Amino acid sequence: MAVTTPIADLGWHAAPFRLKGVDGKMHTLKELSGRHGTLVIFICNHCPYVKAVLPRIIRDARELLPLGVNTIAINSNDDSTYPEDSFDNMQRLAAEMDFPFHYLHDETQEVARAYGAVCTPDFYAFDAGGCLHYRGRLDASGREPAPEDAPRELFDAMRLIAYYGYGPGDQYPSIGCSIKWRDTELAEAPSGQKALAA
How far apart are CA 42 and CA 114, in angstroms? Predict the structure, then answer.
């Protein structure tokens, strides 16, 4: 089911986490944060919306690195019902696509709930101090990529945050597949922005 991200409640700080990456190591938000900003993305392997924009996510992540911005990708989906999103398949996809960022497994789904993530892809752009300034779409893409000359909304927002410490006034919601929650009774939109132990 396709869902869109809610209107952003900006200004809250990134919740810390400690998650296993496809390199087999545990990583924390503090360790992976960029000098001038951090882009946290909730993605997965199977979602057609993610597949449509994954090459652009990779492109943007590479181009943000010289600006001191690091990207962190997190998969929170229940792989018991969506085996394509398993940790082994995360490792395979990251290797095949040569991800320029860490791809982390949120097995307990606590991080997705802490951030209030609702769909894949779901983008959060934080400044150097970990304050949220953008929660919007990558560009005008949906299940199919937008035209090549479509404005690079997320990239431009993150560059603005890195240079000046604030995001754009106009932000359009991201659209994608709903996060696949383990407990269907708790599958409503998460409350979000609660602290996690690092």
Answer: 12
The domain in which residue 143 lies consists of 2-181
Q: 69-75 and 37-42: which strand pairing?
A: parallel
Alpha helices in 65-108 (DSSP H): 87-97
Query: Among 136, 192, 134, 137, which Cα is nearest to 164's?
Result: 134
C-alpha to C-alpha distances, 183 to 110, 116, 186, nearest whole angstrom: 12, 16, 5
Please give the C-alpha separations between residue 143 and each of 45, 54, 130, 185, in angstroms, as whole numbers. Answer: 14, 11, 30, 28
Task: For 115-161, write each residue's pLDDT tens digit.
Answer: 999 999 999 999 999 999 999 999 999 999 999 999 999 999 999 99
CB environment 76-88: b (16+ within 10 A), e (fewer): bbbbeebeebbbe
Q: Is the pLDDT of residue 166 over 60?
A: yes
188 within domain boundaries:
no
Q: Does a structural domain hold residue 75?
A: yes
CATH number at residue 100: 3.40.30.10
Calculate what percentage of the chain has a pLDDT beyond 90: 87
Q: Are 111 and 19 in contact (CB under 8 A)?
A: yes
- DSSP helix, strand, coil percent of the chain (3-state; round to 5): 30, 20, 50
User: How many domains does the chain contain in total?
Assistant: 1
Contacts of 151 (CB under 8 A, 6+ apart): 139, 140
